[in-house]
Amino acid sequence: MKAISSNMIQKLFSVIINALYLITIIFIVIMVTVTALLNKTNLALQTKTNLLTGNVVKQDIPILATGSATLQDFIVEDGQHVEPGDKLFSWSQTINATTIASQTVTAPTAGIVKFTKLKPGDTVQANWKIIDIYTDDGPRLLVYLTQDQYNSIRNIANLQAYSTRLDQSLTVVPKMFQADTVNNGTAQEKIGVYFDFRDAQYATSLLQNESLKLLLPQPKTVGVTDMLHKISFLSQ
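^ that's the sequence the OP posted. Answer follows.
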């Protein structure tokens, strides 16, 4: 009788051990699957909602012809940074059918030079634009946000914008009062928000209409507890 009881105990113990082993394997498989699903879900959330593209907006100071003139030389290069008083180009003006000797035009402000299609030898008339200067004063980043994205940054003091060209993160400050709305050809209206750059030194390195990546606040990620709670709720 004692031998039979011992065998039964051994078999029962073996069954329990095997059951626990099987449960452990199943639990590990479930956790690995859930973890992979969560990682994929959270990555999708971050990719879709965290990075937005915006464009740098600078004030344009056009350099206009004051009258009939012939362009002679461009002293600066397209994309060059200039300071007030730097020489831009030379021309010979014609006033009352009299050609005045070569004169040099200088930059009225600091900024980045952008050429038009004009070249040396071309004749221009009054108010023709010779070049643009995109000034260093108050560059901004314009980003179009959905209503949810707009709401998520209302109370944030500053955000980070990344320049691929400079390989650098720049601190920007949202200015809500300058927002405007556009439809962008979609059913969902988007809000155009201007961001100021916290450090003035960025002004000299940024280009007009340059694209930057704006990093929005991290969305709430889905955790294992959230997933299990949701599974429990659905099973009820």
